[in-house]
Specification:
With 1030 residues, this protein is mainly alpha-helical. 61% of the residues lie in helices and 4% in strands. It is built from 44 helices and ten strands. This is Tetratricopeptide repeat protein.
Length: 1030
């Protein structure tokens, strides 16, 4: 025992001697102490006055390490671990870089303050020559960082960089200078990489502090400073290898925040070994797949999705990794989307994912929506809800998408029911919650009104039947509904094994080569049940199928019998409380057995009609004022006036029709509605209001100041910028800024941006936000101000960005059969990624400078087109055949009875049509701005369709903004009807209505119009086909 003790003492002494040689002296600490403790000295103040021998070194190191650093470090790690436990990833969106949120971690301020207190105490109460002073500062800086005090954190890390830099006999060595002993430029602290040194000493904190300085700069939105430090560290030859993974991690984080996704993925791959756990590594692999997918590197994305699925311990992550791997394979054509849909449906049938079917069916529904298979999408979403286990977030997402689909399809009752089933607390995105809360109250009113209309219509129909037939109908309906309710009431107490006619359970110990039961999945290996993954994953499904949903309670069979007895006592109440329209129908049928609710007398029928009138008018008002769905409001008002021409609310209905028509830019219909109002109700209450409004509008338009600034506005739009600036200065000197309009300020800012006069543009945009804060242009102005302030940074990044495009084989022209022109137009609309600006010349349609390659589709077969399309890359494609150049005419159908013609143009309802915006004297600068605006609108409102947008200049006056083509004219008209009311308030609010108009035009008429320039002649054709619409 004595020999062992002497050996241990000698070993400790030798270690302490080594530690004494390696000790890093720190700087002094100046403290302001209360008067009571002014004469008391802390250990840190005695640093220079005492000897620092081996025993003191050992004692100070031990106390600082285990009493202070160890506890502070554990507390800090505990905060991060708790933040990770409370963090929930949304795998449908781009994952955050880290699996914890600083917003959550920073809420533990009491714990963080304790950590900072321990760090300060650990420094002040001990000799500053100990080996753990820099580590205490490091923990302090991290605590400030987690607390989101980034400026304090940065100061601590800068202090570590300064105070613990390499020194020679107490004098600082200039960092990164030739004055140091080496000729190599370096800022890092050299570390001894030998195994003995690693075993005896811990690593210094200065090099790590440099990386945390980068984290601070990133969080403080100072990317330039962060990039500078990273570049120095990456090229430092003495930066330790142990921190290379952390360097790649920080670099990946920087690229991630700058949205340079492929570079972020590149560095994150090299930081995978830096992940704390296997699960965090799998999560980063999933993130790498997402980053590569955003960077259009689909093959790499698939690889890392597959790696994440194979490494993860989280079944939810495994499902989403598999789903994203399928999505990343191939492109977005209809054929490829159908292939992805089929793969997802097969995935849903796998036993391995039995508990994640809600997620898979949700993914199937989203692909089905891209294919416009709305019925299949609804079916899959209902399966997603039905197969939901404990995933409340996914259940709410499925119900929300069901509501959105039903709302877009104008199934308002279904939409209300689905929205009502959404748990608002489970929605992950603020825009989803905002949309839900905006729609739910209105849809509740609409659904109630529709149910009232349906019920009263049914009762009126019953009243019109002969008595005998009515009674027979009621009795039959009562029997059917009673049977249905009885079946649903008893179904919970029937053994599912008997109901589904299932056979015995599978054998847990099958013979080699035999089957593992009929319902548990086959096994040809003879594995034991608990070694067979297929059997284990299907165990729960098999148990539930055989025994039903047994509650987790004792004596469940007896409890079920007692519940059944209790259920029989309240059977009548259960029937009345059944969900949906069946319960309402049953209630009315029971009441109608005595003819109590059926309107048989004229007074009762009048009361029933009054309810229908109020419901129709109420729906119109709700559509109009709460949902701003003017087309649906028009339908409601028209239905009201059609069914009840002399209803009491006729006056209000006609005026509301006028209002809705005006907002949808259907001027002719609006005039008809107001004329009908004045003709049928001469003394209506709106007559004076309309006359005053027209008088105000007329007087405002005749105001000299208004006319002066309107003239300036027109000059800017027409491209006469010098004259416009001169006229504006003249008007400002007379009228000041009281007559500025947000539209004028906005188009001026666009002009000055083009001239690179950013300060002037920002001044104009600022005036919009100050003078017109509630105008739709105010939000656009705020965004543009932010972009302009970062213009040099954005342009510098784009200039340095290197993008390589593969050469495309243009040696073989694509030929298309002229008889299949319509099908080719439809195929192009579905396959086009985007439509670059296009222009027409005498030879046909070709791309302008916006498209890097001009692809001209001449006469060709569709089969050849579809086969060769894959080799053309993803450039924008515009269907336009070189008919006039080749002398090939378009074959017109023989049954031309429905074709309308005038002198030059013809309208065929079977031809694909563009939706067109006719721009009148608008400069190309603003034409491009309008095109971009409609691109943004299409990406939001038609995200699943990718509607191309192009520009065509006809002459010095007219230009066409072409959207489509659409397969049928009614699709183009529907697009215009939806875009019109939004154009003035959201899409192009800076462009006055008189500067543009709407039209639809086919490919054939487009070529003729480009050659003839006869805009008036084409408008005559539209007026002939669609009187009053255009």
């Amino acid at each position: 025992m004595k020999i062992a003790f002497e050996y241990l003492l000698a070993l400790c002494t030798s270690l302490l001697l080594v530690c004494g040689v390696q000790a890093q002296p720190g700087s002094s600490v100046d403290l302001t102490k209360p008067p009571k403790y002014e004469k008391r000295m802390f250990a840190s103040e005695k640093t220079g006055a005492t000897h620092f021998r081996a025993f003191r070194h050992f004692y100070q190191n031990t106390i600082t390490h285990y009493n202070y650093f160890y506890n502070a470090n554990n507390r800090l790690n505990g905060i991060i671990d708790r933040a990770k436990q409370n963090f929930r990833d949304d795998y449908t969106q781009l994952l955050p870089f880290y699996n914890y949120s600083l917003d959550v971690a920073s809420t533990e301020r009491r714990e963080l303050d304790t950590i900072i207190y321990k760090c300060v105490a650990g420094i002040v109460l001990h000799d500053l020559r100990t080996d753990w002073v820099d580590n205490m500062y490091m923990i302090m800086g991290k605590a400030y960082f987690i607390r989101k005090d980034f400026d304090s954190s940065l100061r601590v890390f800068k202090y570590i960089n300064y105070a613990f830099a390499p020194k020679d006999d107490g004098y600082d060595l200039p960092i990164g200078s030739n004055y140091n002993q080496d000729t190599v430029f370096s800022v890092a602290t050299r570390e001894n990489g030998s195994l003995v040194h690693k075993f005896i000493n811990h690593s210094p904190s200065r090099n790590e502090a440099l990386l945390w300085m980068v984290r601070d700069y990133i969080e403080m939105n100072k990317p330039t400073q962060a990039a500078g430090v990273l570049e120095i560290l990456r090229n430092d030859p003495f930066f330790p290898k142990r921190l290379q993974g952390a360097t790649h991690e920080t670099t990946a984080y920087w690229y991630y925040t700058q949205h340079v996704y492929d570079s972020a993925a590149y560095h994150l791959i090299r930081a995978l070994d830096n992940a704390a756990t296997v699960q965090e590594k799998a999560r980063w692999e999933f993130l790498i797949g997402q980053l590569y997918q955003l960077g259009k590197h689909d093959s790499l994305a698939v690889h890392y999705y597959d790696r994440a699925a194979s490494h993860t311990l989280d079944p939810i992550l495994e499902v989403y990794a598999t789903l994203n791997s399928i999505r990343a394979q191939g492109g977005e054509s209809d054929e490829l989307l159908q292939q992805k849909l089929n793969k997802l449906l097969k995935l849903a049938k796998r036993d391995k994912f039995a508990f994640q079917q809600d997620i898979i069916y949700y993914a199937v529904a989203k692909v089905a929506l891209q294919l416009k298979q709305n019925d299949l999408a609804e079916e899959c979403l209902l399966k997603s809800v039905k197969n939901s286990t404990n995933n409340l977030i996914q259940r709410s997402a499925s119900f929300l998408l069901l509501g959105d689909v039903s709302y877009d399809r104008k199934k308002y009752i279904n939409a209300h029911n689905y929205y009502d089933s959404v748990d608002e607390r489970s929605l992950l995105h603020a825009d989803e919650l905002e949309r839900l809360q905006a729609r739910k109250p209105s849809l509740k009113i609409i659904a109630a009104n529709v149910q009232t209309i349906n019920m009263q219509d049914s009762l009126l129909r019953l009243a019109a039947m002969p008595p005998a037939e009515r009674e027979a109908f009621i009795k039959k309906a009562m029997r059917e509904l009673a049977k249905k309710q009885a079946r649903s009431a008893d179904s919970a107490y029937v053994n599912p094994a008997l109901r589904n006619n299932q056979t015995a359970a599978g054998d847990m110990f099958p013979a080699s080569g035999g089957n593992a039961g009929n319902s548990g999945g086959g096994s040809s290996t003879g594995d034991w049940y608990f070694n067979n993954n297929a059997l284990k994953s299907g165990g729960y499904t098999e148990f539930r199928g055989k025994w039903g949903n047994r509650p987790n309670v004792d004596n469940w069979a007896r409890k079920a019998a007692m519940d059944k007895v209790a259920a029989n006592k309240v059977k009548e109440n259960e029937l009345e409380a059944a969900s949906g329209k069946d319960s309402a129908a049953l209630k009315n049928m029971v009441a109608s057995s005595g003819n109590g609710d059926i309107p048989l007398t004229p007074a009762q029928q009048e009361a029933s009609n009054q309810q229908i009138m109020k419901a129709l008018f109420g729906n119109g008002q709700t559509f109009q004022y709460q949902l701003q769905d003017y087309p649906s409001a028009i339908d409601a008002y028209l239905e009201l006036l059609r069914r009840y021409p002399n209803c009491p609310m006729k006056e209000d209905a006609l005026f509301s029709l006028y209002y809705c028509y005006k907002h949808t830019d259907r001027i002719a219909q609006a005039d008809s509605a107001i004329n009908a109002l004045n003709r049928e109700i001469p003394d209506n209450k709106y007559k004076r209001q309309l006359s005053q409004h027209e008088a105000v509008a007329e007087s405002s338009e005749k105001n000299p100041a208004t006319q002066a600034y309107q003239h300036v506005y027109d000059l800017f739009l027409e491209g006469q910028f010098a004259t416009a600036e001169q006229e504006e200065r003249k008007a400002d000197s007379i009228y000041g800024k009281n007559y500025w309009s947000p539209q004028l300020l906005y188009i001026e800012s666009v002009y000055y941006i083009k001239q690179r006069e950013d300060s002037t543009a920002i001044s104009k945009l600022t005036n919009i936000t100050k003078l017109y804060p509630k105008n739709p242009l105010a939000e656009k102005a705020t965004i543009m101000i932010d972009v302009l302030k970062r213009r040099k940074e954005i342009e510098s990044y784009l200039t340095n960005l290197q993008v390589t495009r593969e050469e495309e084989d243009m040696s073989h022209p694509i030929l298309a059969d002229s008889s299949d022109l319509n099908a080719a137009a439809l195929a192009a609309r579905r396959r086009a990624d985007s439509l670059a600006s296009a222009k027409l010349n005498g030879k046909g349609i070709q791309f302008d400078a916006y498209a890097p390659h001009a692809i001209i589709v001449d006469s060709a077969s569709i089969s050849t087109y579809s086969k060769e399309r894959k080799s053309l890359g993803k450039d924008s494609l515009l269907i336009g055949n070189n008919i006039s150049n080749r002398g090939i005419g378009i074959d017109v159908r023989k049954d031309t009875s429905h074709v309308v013609t005038n002198n030059l143009f013809s309208y065929n309802p079977d031809d694909p049509q563009y939706a067109a915006l006719i721009l009148d004297k608008v400069d190309p600068v603003y034409q491009t701005e309008a095109r971009n605006a409609f691109n943004r609108y299409n990406s939001g409102a038609y995200s699943n369709e990718k509607i191309p947008v192009g520009l065509l200049r006809l002459d010095d006056r007219y230009s066409l903004l072409l959207l489509g083509p659409f397969e049928k004219p009614f699709l183009a008209l529907d697009y215009i009807d939806k875009a019109k009311p939004l154009a003035q308030i959201r899409i192009i609010p800076w462009l006055t209505v008189k500067k543009y108009s709407y039209a639809i035009i086919s490919q054939q008429n487009l070529e003729k119009l480009n050659q003839s320039k006869d805009m008036d002649g084409y408008r005559e054709l539209l007026q002939q086909v669609f009187p009053g619409r255009f």
